[in-house]
Amino acid sequence: MAKKASARKPNAAFMKPMTISPKLAVVLGSKPLPRTEVTKKLWAYIKKNGLQDKKNKRMIKADDALKAVFGGKATVNMFEMTKLVSKHLS
Predict the structure, then answer these.
(1) Which of 19, 22, 66, 77 is the most exposed place for a label (fewest CB within 10 A)?
(2) What is the spatial distance between Cα 36 and Cα 1, in angstroms, rounded to a whole number?
(3) What percent of the chain has pLDDT over 70?
(4) What letter would DSSP give residue 16?
(5) pLDDT digits (tens, 9 = 90+) for 1-43
(6) What was the pLDDT predicted at 12?
(7) Strand ranges in the chain using DSSP code E only, listed in sequence order
(8) Angle at Cα 11 formed by Cα 29 and Cα 4, nearest 5°?
(9) Cα separation, 88 vs 73, whole angstroms
(10) How far apart are CA 76 and CA 81, in angstroms?
(11) Is 67 exposed, middle or buried (0-12, 13-18, 19+ CB in 10 A)?
(12) CB distance 89 to 18 below 8 Å
């Protein structure tokens, strides 16, 4: 019988709680969170507030709280969003 492949271990760097900047704290709260949770909570916020473009789901329309995080940009794509958000984690 063939051995079953073991489940992938989560990367410790992604699981380490990160300090959230005051601008990002407006959206996510100020409690330190791992990167994975930051992404989950950010998407929950985007979906709850209907900030995804209806036609092109990869585009995020920033409300006032997210504009501060996105460096004043009104719309960003999901890949650019991750890059911009990472600047607010330390």
Answers:
(1) 22
(2) 36
(3) 86
(4) S
(5) 555 555 666 667 778 899 999 999 999 999 999 999 999 999 9
(6) 73
(7) 59-61, 75-77
(8) 130
(9) 15
(10) 6
(11) middle
(12) yes
